[in-house]
């Protein structure tokens, strides 16, 4: 094969380029260079770990502050809820009481008196501060439209006397009135009680969760023990 001048020139240029890159890459293959690069890389890893350690400490500090603030907020919410519940200490709710068309205060008073009569108690007018309908209207099994009545009694003792005479849910009787009477729990306390009842559906050692006459929430165990709770944390500790 005959090499032309042009071909020879190209071969020389190609060799020069090859030699240049060989000279450039050759140091990379030396032991000292590799150890130097590895040392730098190792130091970068150490420095990075130090930075991550500092960041983790800051994150832990922030988490501790957040948890501390959460505890404070929970305690404030409980204090506020206790105050709200105390203000409701003289209230009772009468559920499933039928509504009449064009119902006025006099008709509502007559219905309330009928509830007292069905409970076999007498409540004088001067023992009641005020009363009115509350909540949403519902249609009962008889097709009648019903709505709750909230009653504020002038004394806690009257409220307690009425509450003790309320129709018992667990008592089956043909003479049992269609309405029911409950405490006026705050929304937070009502939701907590509902959660507690849902949490013990499959428990064999707990009879039920309930609110006592003072609106305090508690579990009643089958062995007769009663344990009170006023937060999700306390509730979970009891049933854990």
Please characterize this protein's 3D structure:
The mean pLDDT is 85. The strands form 2 sheets. The chain has a 4-stranded antiparallel β-sheet. Strands 5-6-7 form a 3-stranded antiparallel β-sheet, covered by helices on one side. By secondary structure, the chain is of the alpha+beta class. The N and C termini lie far apart (93 Å). A hairpin with a 5-residue loop joins strand 5 and strand 6. It is elongated, with a radius of gyration of 39 Å. It has 3 domains: 80 residues; 94 residues, 2-Layer Sandwich (Alpha-Beta Plaits); 53 residues, no CATH class. 51% of the residues lie in helices and 20% in strands. It has 6 helices and 7 strands; from the N terminus they run ααβαββαβαβββα.
